Amino acid sequence: MRHILVPIDFSEDSLHALKNAIEYANKLKANIRLIHVTKKYIAFNEEINLNKNFNKLNSSIEDYLNFVIDKYKSKLNGTFDYKIREGKVYAEITNQAKYDNALMIVMGTHGMSGFEARWIGCNAFRVVVNSACPVVTIRRGFEKNGVKKIVMPIDLSSESRQKVPFVTNIAKQLGADIYLLDICSSDKDEKSEKLKDYSRQVAEYINKNDVSCIKKFLVGNSMTDTVVDFSNVIDADLIAIMTEQSESAKDYLIGTYAQQMINHSPIPVISFNPV
Questions:
Q1: Residue 236 has pLDDT above 50, yes or no
Q2: Collapsed DSSP state (helix, strand, coil) of residue 133
Q3: Which end of the chain has fewer surrounding CB within 10 Å, N or C?
Q4: 3-state helix/strand/coil string of 33-64
């Protein structure tokens, strides 16, 4: 049975991500592996900004990790274990995921202490763009349970379709509907017509795999804002994106689409790298 890798620094944000990871793991029939990354030349008491769950402890990193496992193991159908690695945060996390052939990484944003800086900054994005498996990033403010609505924007690039089989598969296991979004800057050009045709093919694939698919065509000048606004309106539970977009998408985006989405979406984002 494959596992979900959960980076943890004992902050509230990383523990919040763990709670969500347990829900994913139970539905996807996966185990959970925690990973804590330490840095050279930093003493233990300087490295960890303990929250109220740990202030009564005064021991090793292993003891803290075992404390977490003892607290949450009754909620997980599978098994818990952990790894402690030393080095650069994003490199150690992505290397561990690749070595383990992890199903996915689930991580919190705004994690502090042993993770060098805010997760919402470069570390979170570095994990996403360097990971061989999908990465789910979750903000602490997202408090919903379960995944019932997955928003999946697509474009005309060959990379965009690579996420479709995985998202379809997890939607089926999670019992979720997929909202397939075609987003263009105009609804009257040749690209928009091609996108509509392509999305119909994708919707057929999803439906053939016994997953409900709701197809929407939206016009917007910012893909990030359009996706997030739509996701908020329908009360979505997850947004599925690729880390690279087609040239048509880049024409009206400022900066990197995936980074914008990770930084600004209040809804969890699952990111895929093109193969």
A1: yes
A2: coil
A3: C
A4: EEEEEECCCCCHHHHCCCCCCCCCCCCCHHHH
Is pTM beyond 0.90 here? no
pLDDT at 58 over 80: no
The answer to whether the CB of 104 falls within 8 A of the CB of 112 is no
Backbone angles phi, psi at 151, to 5 degrees: -95, 125
Residue whose tokens read 């995921």: 97
pLDDT at residue 102 is higher than 50: yes
Residue 96 neighbours by CB under 8 Å, 6+ apart: 5, 33, 35, 83, 85, 102
Residue 73 lies in a domain: yes
Clarify whether residues 134 and 198 are in a common domain. Answer: no
* DSSP class of 238: E
Average pLDDT over the chain, rounded to an integer: 83
Same domain, 90 and 205: no
Domain span at residue 163? Answer: 149-268
Torsion of the alpha carbons at 72, 76, 79 and 85, rounded to the nearest 10 = -50
**CA 216 – CA 182 distance, rounded (Å):** 6
> Collapsing DSSP states into helix, strand and coil, what is residue 146?
coil
Return the percentage of the chain with pLDDT > 90, whole number.
Answer: 51
What is the rounded average pLDDT of the residues 146-163?
89
Domain boundary among 85, 107, 138: 138
Give the residue, 30 or 195, on which the prediction is more confident.
30
Give the Cα separation of 92 and 36 in Å (integer). 9
